[in-house]
Amino acid sequence: MRLANLDGRAALVFATDGSSLALDVETASGGLIGSDPQAVYADWDSFAAWAVTVEPGGVPFERSSLGAPVPRPRQVFAIGINYAEHAAEAGYPAGSLPITFTKFPSCLTGPDAQVELPPGSVDWEVELVVVISRSAKDVSREDAWSHVAGLTVGQDLSEREAQNAGAKPQYSLSKSHTGFGPMGPWLVSTDEFENPNDLAISSTLSGESMQSSRTSMMIYSVPDLIFELSRVCELYPGDVIFTGTPAGVGNARTPKRFIGPADTLRSEIEGIGYLENTFRSRDH
Ligand code: ZN
Fold first, then answer.
1. Which end of the chain has fewer CB atoms within 10 angstroms, the N or the C?
2. What is the pTM of this model?
């Protein structure tokens, strides 16, 4: 199933010939399920059991009405250096423990948001985003997928000057400017994927291909990440994990390339959909 945040309300999305329809969850369930897209994850099993009984239908909608499918996670885990080719271009050795940081939840925004560019050098990182359903603590790799509600597309926008500021790097803050966490266009539940461990992932900047890989190339797979993270701390329903980006970021190019106000950034993952973000300069 596809679960969207449409104007702040949970909605099921159904693909039809050439367009998509959205069905309001609270209305269609007669109030059994509430309208808050974040609250759905707190009782995912009840929601999923209801959702499979729903006949496809609904009304057409504009993509501009879509918000982040997970608007207020309690915790946002983000993984650095999780594709071997990106590790090489960034100058990190592969094989060490996953580098983990956070994107503060206030940076999360919708799939087609226009993002204000702060001073500095803003770069792109398309990432598979995992959304937790059942709480996870000390979860085995074998059991990990049963704690996942579904997958969505994320952009880990990053201001590289602060991120790489020598002895005073601002890893999490440099990735948490307002609007630096576009997500969507919706959550796709894990049962929709033939193999959720192997999905094409790509980004283009103003039509030019920048990143193209497969999620099977991750050094730490989704089960590995849930195993490693849940050994340290509890993952709550509705938490998200940005799982790292493949090679092809602007900071590693010769010459370096960063996002400008005229650019359009498209980020896509097979079986989920795409984000399409535009940008504007800060006017003060
Ligand atoms: Zn990243």
1. C
2. 0.96
Q: pLDDT of 103-145, one tens digit each?
A: 999 999 999 999 999 999 999 999 999 999 999 999 999 999 9
Ligand 1 center to residue 223 CA distance, Å?
A: 18
Q: In angstroms, rounded to a whole number, what is the distance separating the alpha carbons of residues 237 and 240? A: 9
Structure tokens, 46? 């009840």
**pLDDT (mean) for 212-236:** 96
Question: C-alpha angle 277/82/217, rounded to 5°?
Answer: 90
**Confidence grade of residue 86 (pLDDT, cut at 50, 70, 90):** confident
Phi first, then psi: give them for residue 163, nearest 5 degrees. -60, -40
Distance CA 201, CA 210 (A): 11
User: 158 CA distance to ligand 1 centroid (A)?
Assistant: 8
Q: Could you please report the per-residue DSSP string of 32-70?
A: SS-S-TTGGGGGHHHHHHHHTTPPS--EE--GGGEE-SS
Q: How far apart are CA 172 and CA 177, in angstroms?
A: 9
Kindly give the distance from the C-alpha atom of residue 30 to the centroid of ligand 1, in angstroms, as a whole number. 40
- pLDDT exceeds cutoff 70 at 45: yes
- Cα 262–265–269 angle (5° rounding)? 170
Could you tell me the distance, in angstroms and rounded to a whole number, from the CA of residue 269 to the centre of ligand 1? Answer: 15
78 CA → ligand 1 middle, Å: 6
